[in-house]
Amino acid sequence: MKLFCAQISSTWEEPAETLERAEVCISRAAREGGDLICFPEQFATGWDPSSMMHLQDISGPIPSRLRELAREYRIAILGSYRETGRSRPLNTAVAISSDGEVLGTYAKCHLFTPAHEDSVYSRGDTTTIFSVDGMKFGVAICYDLRFTSLFRLYADAGVQAVLVPAAWPESRLDHWELFIRARAVEYQIYVAGINTTGVTPVDIYAGGSMVADPTGGLACRAGREEELLSCELDRDFVERVRSAMPVILDRRDDLTVSDEPLNPGKHE
Q1: Residues paired with 228 in a beta bridge
Q2: Which of 19, 170, 174, 239 has an alpha carbon 20 to 30 Å from 185's alpha carbon atom?
Q3: CA proximity to 165, closest of 133, 139, 189, 184
Q4: Residue-wise pLDDT tens digits, 151-201
Q5: What are the Cα distances from residue 14, in Å, to 10, 19, 32, 171, 183?
Q6: Domain presence at residue 109
Q7: Which domain holds residue 113?
Q8: At 9, which CATH number?
Q9: Is residue 164 within 8 Å of residue 194, measured between CB atoms?
Q10: β-pairing verdict for 210-212 and 218-221
Q11: Strand pairing partners for 220?
């Protein structure tokens, strides 16, 4: 299946304007045979860990417009928005089929405490899995990339690719590539990082969207500027890699930590 990563900047807190620009990417991806197009974290507004603007539920203007665009251009879409929660908002990604139906939603589980995102937003508590063209996808959002346990859950559930919409700053771009490739080779899955670019009131971003394959190699990578990146994902390749090196069979879940001091005399 053909994946497109839309590395675009946001028109700050102007979702209608950003969605107009996103439509250009969606239209082009559809013309070029795309099955799925993904956008960065909170792309319609720009990521802001303190903002309470443009809060909405799944029937709100941002998800509704994405559903319309998916139906119009016959392509699946992964978008991200600020969702109204029970007590505090959620940082949510929504997967939409080419028929405009909601395939699943995922609320960011690991909130970025260095920027106090946790003081405004609530954490998500569950993963989400959806399928496009026979390939099983999981979703993580930005800071989630640092937490290997989330990717392990997806791999154990048979996911073949994890999509990571993000607003990952230029100052830590080396970590971005490191984690994407590490998660891919650790769990023998595709990992697609879809980053934003440009300058916002929150930080400076330098793109670098990329897709790592199940061997940890890069299938494609974007530069610093706005770019519509594409690559082919092959579920059979995932299975071949896992069969050639079945690391999951050698995993030990029975290990314990010992705090007893070693006695060199017992190990001559």
Answers
A1: 6
A2: 170
A3: 139
A4: 999 999 999 999 999 999 999 999 999 999 999 999 999 999 999 999 999
A5: 8, 9, 28, 26, 34
A6: yes
A7: 2-250
A8: 3.60.110.10
A9: yes
A10: antiparallel
A11: 211
- Has residue 261 been placed in a domain? no
List CB contacts of 261: < 8 A, sequence separation 6 or more.
Answer: none
Size (the chain), residues: 268
pLDDT tens for 208-249 read 999 999 999 999 999 999 999 999 999 999 999 999 999 988
Place of tokens 């394959």: 213
CA 211 to chain centre: 11
Condensed to tens digits (0 to 9), the pLDDT of residues 50-109 reads: 999 999 999 999 999 999 999 999 999 999 999 998 889 999 999 999 999 999 999 999
Instruction: Return the exposure string of 26-46: e unless at least 16 CB atoms fall within 10 Å of the residue's CB, then b.
Output: bebbbeeebbbbbbbbbbbbb
Cβ–Cβ contacts within 10 Å for residue 199, how many?
Answer: 11
Cα–Cα dist 220/99, whole Å: 28
Is beta strand 129-132 parallel, antiparallel or unpaired with respect to 102-107? unpaired
Q: Is residue 223 part of a domain?
A: yes
Total of domains in the chain: 1
Enumerate the H helices of 1-147 as residue ranges.
Answer: 15-31, 61-73
CB neighbour burial string for 69-107, b if at least 16 within 10 angstroms, e if fewer: bbeebebbbbbbbbbebeeebbbbbbbbbbebeebbbbb
Q: Give, for 218, the enclosing helix (H) or strand (E).
A: strand 218-221
Question: Cα(253)–Cα(232) distance, rounded to whole angstroms?
Answer: 34
Name the H helices within the chain. Answer: 15-31, 61-73, 148-156, 173-187, 235-244, 247-250
